[in-house]
Design goal:
By secondary structure, the chain is of the alpha/beta class. It has 38 helices and 23 strands. Helix 7 (181-189) runs parallel beside helix 8 (214-225) and helix 14 packs across helix 15. Residues 614-635 have a biased composition (Acidic residues). This is Rad16.
């Protein structure tokens, strides 16, 4: 017999023996009671404890047909039906199909528990986005149609705006419900829904679940009171499972013991995709098109990578103790490269020098430029470069700091600027502008031409579908749509091949650049005129410090002088060096560059002639289009009341084989629109790992009529490296998870296990009653009344986990009622700043002092960020004049504060304490620290009364439909209190009579006087209806 599992036969024998002993004990007990001379010691009986058998849910017998065409999908669904588990799937392998089939199989009308209990099936879907819910609904509708379900389970979405009676009715009906975690956790804590009535939870995007999130809070509440319900978790981002033992940590948060790993290299997945190819080796429908970058694009790419490497090296030099192995050029192509570096520095952000922060901003700029190099046209790319240079020069002239971005001091930055200008504005000896086109454009035109030729040659076009072009963003999709409309085929002679020309598109981009340049010059002129006088008044102000850089950023450039009196000359030299960057290979044009290093007047005139010539060529076509549009608009005006039949008569059917559809990658809809469109040709204009997997699934399902796939990418470019790095990252992530799963320890759990924090209460609670403290024991229940709007933070979850009962209520005063005397208003740093700006914090403090003895302001910092308010490193880099740009808006309470001081958050806190000297302030470094502070505060206090907390600050004359306290919108209330005649004493009367501000401004003077009285009513009416000018 096992130490942990008992045999069934032995268990039955033991139960029979226990029952016999119980009968014998009862008989002996009756005999003892009948015999008064028997000793008390012999009258004692052995107590027997009975443990209730574990509830096993029994689903009704019914036939369920699932739509799972591939073998690996069938195995995953079978395994997940058998046990609760976390599924980690490779990107693009169709998690929504698996989830929909599981929901359909588990959504039975009812669930049988034991012999007497029968519950309606109620399944919650957590952490789902709106587009994901639409996709799941479509899949479930298809499954219900396949199974011919006359009464399918309802799939309902509940938002945070829904009313509690409607939510309760929805819970009673059962079915599948998608709900936000904040709403569900409040409903469970208030008792609106019993966790024992929930059949199970579906947790999507499990990689984002943290132990302090509301999703984890719901899982703990559910599993603490419901041992028979199921939990299914899903994730298709294995790279997000990072840290120490990520798999075990995530399983602990999800209260699960099993994990299923299904990467792309899984044997079953490979067999599912390659099964049909074994029969016919010629069915290879993927054609890779390796496009080479132009020589100028190669030079720009190499220069940008060198700048990034220099920035990373300089960042390491400034922060040697904070640098990690991730700060390497191998990870530059990671989409989250800069974000991860920034996140690793958040906790020490206030200690970083201004140079380090500037380097991080430069990394963001350089990575974006690398991406734009292979996606946008040459003119737009040069416009971006010029905008960056102009912004740095503007900052320098404005005196915000005495140095430009460090990467602009490198020689490689000159290479980037020069070649970017040459691609867009360069011209040959004959004066013909290059207007360099992206190499992919020509290949795309030739590819579409070949496809159309293949369709024309093949007589049987019934099996052909549309041509689908996939790209990464809406910007690229818009660009491709315009290119396909204007491209022109140029036939080659015997020695050269045909090619496609997109010069008209480039000329339009050049025209847009000239318009942008003119507007930019006007803005510069206006700014210089406005700042002229202010610069004169601040000439004697102490100059700011320079960015400290190593020789990496100043080699072969203008030396940085250490003498203060010549520092301005050095900066002027750097500006002139950026402005004087000339073209190469004929870039000097007719007389070189002008004063801003961009275009001479002769060059501008030549470009205008080029634009006019192109406009004349297309003038006739545009006039015809305008005439057609004018006729259409006139017809629309004349026939605005046409019938539906007339409208349908104007439509024309287009064959699917004649359609060219441009679509943006979307992981939610990729699989669905492939099946709906059934394209015969798929062109991947840019690589995308998830969509490649979607195509593999589509090809495996559509084995009779697969599509031809064309995969375009720039060889030896950042685009190729990004794609290869993404494949490498996913493979390495799955390898780590597989190794961890192999060494994962067995998990055994009993009903006595507690997932809450193991905090010893005797450290904060004692039985001494000295000093007026209340008598408490370690086993006394602690509770805190929490405002329902606070469930967006992690503090209520942590309070529950340390053993404090959380009672959610819609309270008017404060956020947390710790005791009848202590009221806490919690503010994160962004909330604190916005509250000071609007003046709402002063009103909140006034309300707390009116009803509580110990009003408390809790200032809570993020655990991953610095525990500091003072930006130490930036204060000395800002000129004094920058403080004058503070916002002029203020409230009556802070109107006497100098605008220069108002920017400082510490000064605002001092002003608050000056207005409320008895206000208590708690400084907390994280929500964990706040939970511990709350536990210490409650050690010698009485428990709060829920009814009293609800009554305080509530006007009982204002009644709501559900009977609860009214919920107010603070911003409109703050707005109307600024109107003369409306104040904090009478705005309740306005709220009762007026629904919104629009109705308020339409009131007559009689209405105002009836609501506010004669004097206040006339003031408010005259203020609103005052005529100006």
């Amino acid at each position: 017999m096992s130490l942990f599992i008992e045999d069934d036969d032995e268990l039955k024998e033991e139960k029979t023996t226990l029952l016999e002993d119980r009968v014998d004990t009862t008989k002996n007990s009756s005999r003892v009671n009948a015999d008064p001379h028997q000793s008390p010691r012999s009258a004692q009986s052995i107590p027997i404890a009975y443990h209730q058998d574990e509830m096993i849910p029994v689903y009704p017998d019914r036939e369920v047909n699932c739509a799972l065409p591939l073998k690996y999908q069938q195995e995953i669904v079978e395994d997940m039906l058998a046990k609760d588990t976390l599924l980690i799937l490779g990107r693009g392998l169709g998690w929504e199909v698996i989830t929909a089939n599981l929901l359909h199989a588990l959504s039975s009308p009812f669930v049988q528990l034991g012999k007497t209990q029968k519950k309606k099936s109620l399944i919650f879907v957590l952490n789902a986005r709106e587009e994901e819910m639409i996709r799941l609904k479509e899949e479930l509708n298809d499954l219900n149609w396949i199974n011919n379900n006359k009464e399918p389970s309802e799939f309902v979405s509940i938002s945070g705006d829904s009313q509690s009676p409607k939510r309760k009715a929805t819970y009673l009906q059962g079915g599948i419900i998608s709900i936000s975690a904040r709403v569900l956790v409040v409903d469970i804590l208030t008792g609106m829904i019993d966790p024992n009535d929930i059949t199970g939870l579906f947790v999507l995007r499990a990689e984002r679940i943290r132990e302090t999130s509301n999703d984890a809070f719901i899982i703990n509440l559910f599993r603490d009171k419901n041992s028979w319900g199921f939990i299914k978790a899903f994730s298709d981002e294995p790279e997000s499972f990072t840290g120490f033992t990520p798999l075990a940590s995530r399983l602990k948060v999800l209260r699960l013991t099993n994990a299923m790993l299904w990467p792309r290299f899984h044997v079953t997945v490979t067999q599912s995709f390659n099964y049909h190819k074994k029969k016919d080796d010629s069915r290879k429908y993927v054609t890779e098109i390796n496009v080479k970058l132009s020589s100028k694009m190669n030079r720009i790419q190499a220069a940008l990578l060198t700048c990034i490497q220099a920035c990373i090296g300089e960042l390491k030099r400034h922060n040697p103790t904070l640098a990690t192995e991730y700060w390497d050029m191998e990870n530059v192509h990671d989409p989250d490269f800069v974000r991860i570096i920034r996140y690793s520095l958040e906790s020490q952000w206030h200690r970083l020098t201004f140079t380090s922060k500037q380097l991080i901003n430069d990394l963001t700029t350089l990575v974006e430029l690398l991406s734009d190099l292979v996606t946008v046209d040459s003119v737009t790319f040069y416009q971006t470069i010029k905008g960056i240079v102009d912004a740095n020069i503007k900052q320098q002239s404005g005196g915000l700091n005495r140095s430009m971005s460090p990467w602009l001091n490198l020689d490689e930055s000159q290479t980037v600027i020069s070649y970017a200008k040459d691609r867009a504005m360069g011209h040959d000896n004959n004066g013909e502008y290059y207007l360099e086109e992206l190499p992919k454009w020509d290949q795309l035109g030739l590819l579409i031409d070949d496809i159309l030729h293949e369709q024309a040659v093949n007589s049987d076009t019934s099996s052909y579908g549309p041509i689908l072009i996939m790209c990464s963003s809406k910007k690229v999709a818009k660009q491709l749509r315009k290119l396909l409309l204007v491209m022109k085929k140029i036939e080659g002679d015997t020695s050269s091949r045909s090619r496609y020309d997109f010069r008209s598109y480039m000329v339009k981009r050049l025209q847009e650049y000239l318009s942008w340049k003119r507007v930019n010059e006007l803005v510069k002129k206006i700014n210089s005129d406005l700042n002229n006088e202010s610069e004169k008044s601040h000439q004697e102000v102490g100059e700011g410090a320079e960015i400290t850089m190593s020789k990496t950023f100043s080699r072969n450039g203008q030396p940085i002088s250490k003498r203060r009196r010549t520092r301005g000359d050095s900066i002027s030299a750097r500006v002139e060096r950026l402005y004087s960057l000339g073209n190469i290979n004929g870039g000097d044009g007719d007389g070189g560059g002008n004063e801003d290093g961009d275009l001479t007047k002769q060059e501008e005139e030549r470009i205008k002639q080029l634009v006019d010539a192109d406009a004349n060529e297309e003038g006739k076509e545009e006039e015809e289009e305008e005439e057609e549009e004018g006729v259409e608009e006139e017809v629309e005006r004349e026939h605005a009341d046409t019938t539906l039949d007339d409208i349908q008569a104007n439509f024309q059917f287009i064959n699917s084989d004649s359609q060219i559809i441009i679509q943006v990658y979307n992981e939610t809809y990729n699989a669905s629109f492939l099946e709906e469109l059934s394209p015969s040709f798929i062109i991947m204009y840019q690589p995308d790992l998830s969509f490649i997997r979607r195509i593999e699934i589509y090809q495996a399902i559509s084995k009779d009529n697969p599509a031809k796939v064309y995969f375009m990418y720039y060889g030896e470019s950042v685009e190729e490296q990004k794609h290869l790095l993404r494949i490498k990252k996913e493979k390495e992530a799955f390898t780590r998870l597989i190794k961890e799963k192999a060494t994962l320890s067995k998990h055994f759990e009993t009903s006595d296990d507690n997932y809450k924090f193991q905090i010893q209460r005797n450290q904060v609670v004692n039985t001494r009653i000295a000093g007026g403290a209340q008598f408490r024991t370690e086993n006394d229940e602690m509770r805190v009344v929490v405002d329902v709007r606070e469930f967006g933070s992690s503090l209520p979850n942590l309070l529950y986990r340390i053993g404090i009962k959380v009672i959610p209520c819609m309270i008017t005063i404060g956020d947390y009622i710790v005791s009848p005397r202590i009221c806490v208003e919690r503010k994160s740093i962004p909330d604190l700043i916005s509250s000071f700006k609007s003046g709402r914090l002063y009103n909140q403090c006034e309300q707390m002092f009116r009803y509580y003895d110990l009003p408390t302001l809790l200032i809570e910092f993020d655990e991953n960020k610095s525990f500091s308010l003072e930006p130490f490193s930036e204060a000395k880099f800002l000129k004094a004049k920058s403080s004058s740009s503070s916002s002029s808006s203020s409230n009556a309470t802070t109107s006497s504060i100098d605008p220069k001081i108002r920017q400082n958050l510490q000064s605002q806190i001092l002003s608050l304490l000056y207005s409320f000297p008895k206000l208590k302030i708690i400084w907390s470094s994280s929500p964990y620290e706040t939970a511990q502070i709350f536990l210490e505060l409650k050690s010698n206090q009485e428990e709060p009364d829920v009814g009293m907390a609800l009554d305080k600050g509530v006007n009982r004359s204002v009644v709501t439909q559900d009977g609860g306290p009214p919920v107010y919108n603070d911003d409109p209330i703050d707005f109307i209190q600024n109107i003369p005649g409306i104040n904090s004493m009478n705005y309740y009367s306005v709220i009762q009579k007026v629904r919104n501000i629009e109705e308020l401004v339409k009131l007559s003077v009689e209405d105002f006087t009836s609501i506010l009285g004669n004097e206040n009513g006339r003031k408010a009416f005259n203020f609103i209806n005052r005529q100006y000018g």
